[in-house]
């Protein structure tokens, strides 16, 4: 019997290797990681209640390893190869994001762990976009782009061999896993030698900067890695002191007492030197980003979020921050109300103190302290925020808008699998945790 390394452990090896590689490729990322670690440590000291809550919910340990990355792919074959690669590390496609509404010719999913234990060990996720050449008008250029993409192989032979072996044997040994991570890393490495001429590159840029970014290189270089901070405003303020130039506004909800969903900000993409068939030039590619995560919202809560954000974005009076705060007034800023109004998802746990008699409501059990509802971290992404991040790192001249054309079916066909519904995952976690907690407390009648 050969021992297989747990996919969660392979994911941790991979996420660490990616972080080390990106630190050498983009030194500002290292600066940002250090800053986030300092701010998180300060926040936990200054807010013992938050610290205790995270520890009790089992979420403190994942904080230091937590990050997400993003890649952009050119074809269905590439997307399928990447799906198989991530599956070896326990990362599966969750959610569908249509970015065409924001003028970006891609649709996306997030590869991430899905079960609770795996999320607690290491929630590493990769926002993965597939280029939509069907939205590009210049069909001659599209044919040329497809031809170029057909000639590249983004996954090494060594990685393919180990993916075959993992699928056949149901896993990889530790030695195989280490080799697999080394091979997988090659897919996401930066290449400063483009595969196209300067002239072709300019034509691709004219179609859309994103087309050029996907088509002109040997592989889907990781374009950012994002650590999770507990205080994004503090990091945003401190960035300039460390020589980092952040984008002007933080995407997502305003600062709140009870964090919801996801707040994100990035530093501008670097102008990098690239050789186009022997001719030096530049390309805007890689950037840095930080995020603060809050509770996952139910469809009812999310509808309120979407409405508030739309109002804020349409509004003209006051500063963006003022409009944000006013616009979000309709979303109660405390977990108790959000839970009672079914606006957000929670995970229930029993504390040591079981009540002697039968409680007559869930709220009574919670008030007595026997039952605790921890907010479930939002593990996914937000399309409007993602569009803001894309735009800020592509250069703001790309504002073309496509006819909104979400096409989840086409995406799943290209993927060769269905994406999971993130809402169903949060709802299942909540329901399961409640059954177990009530059983533990002898309160299954509720
Ligand atoms: C992905 C941008 C989206 C996020 O955190 O929303 C993203 C990209 O630029 O490829 O990473
Ligand atoms: Ni990101």
From TrEMBL:
<keyword id="KW-0408">Iron</keyword>
<dbReference type="InterPro" id="IPR009770">
    <property type="entry name" value="HGLS"/>
</dbReference>
<dbReference type="InterPro" id="IPR047869">
    <property type="entry name" value="YdcJ_bac-like"/>
</dbReference>
<dbReference type="GO" id="GO:0051213">
    <property type="term" value="F:dioxygenase activity"/>
</dbReference>
<keyword id="KW-0560">Oxidoreductase</keyword>
<dbReference type="Pfam" id="PF07063">
    <property type="entry name" value="HGLS"/>
</dbReference>
<protein>
    <recommendedName>
        <fullName>2-oxoadipate dioxygenase/decarboxylase</fullName>
        <ecNumber>1.13.11.93</ecNumber>
    </recommendedName>
</protein>
<comment type="similarity">
    <text>Belongs to the 2-oxoadipate dioxygenase/decarboxylase family.</text>
</comment>
<keyword id="KW-0223">Dioxygenase</keyword>
